[in-house]
Amino acid sequence: MSDKIEQKIRRAKKKPGVETVSEAQSLLDREEAGGRRLRKQVLQEFCFQEIRCWAHTNNQLGQSRGEASTGTEGIKASD
């Protein structure tokens, strides 16, 4: 194992309820999965904010030119 992984396992083994290497690895895996979910959530929120900001700016530019967006452009009604 690499030194970095061994250090993480040693730190995880110091936590309450962790006695074996496999328990430490399991804990690290759960923490890493939680971190990925959190990063994904933050990224999604950031992207959503960016899109909202872009749409607002785009709409403001359209309003100044008299072309306000309704959000339905390009959508065709089906019969």
Compact description:
Helices cover 70% and strands 0% of the residues. With 79 residues, the protein is mostly helical.
Total count of domains: 1
Count every helix, treating DSSP H or I runs of 4 or more residues as helices.
Answer: 2
Would you tell me the overall average pLDDT? Answer: 69
Taking pLDDT < 50 over at least 5 consecutive residues as the criterion, the unreliable ranges are none
Biased composition (Polar residues): 59-72
Region (Disordered): 1-21, 59-79
Structure in words:
With 79 residues, the protein is an all-alpha fold. It has one domain. Helices cover 70% and strands 0% of the residues. Helix 1 crosses helix 2. The mean pLDDT is 69.
List keywords for this structure.
single chain, 2 helices, mainly alpha, 79 residues, 0% strand, rod-shaped
Secondary-structure map with pairings?
Blueprint: H1 3-13, H2 21-64
Region (Disordered): 1-21, 59-79
Biased composition (Polar residues): 59-72
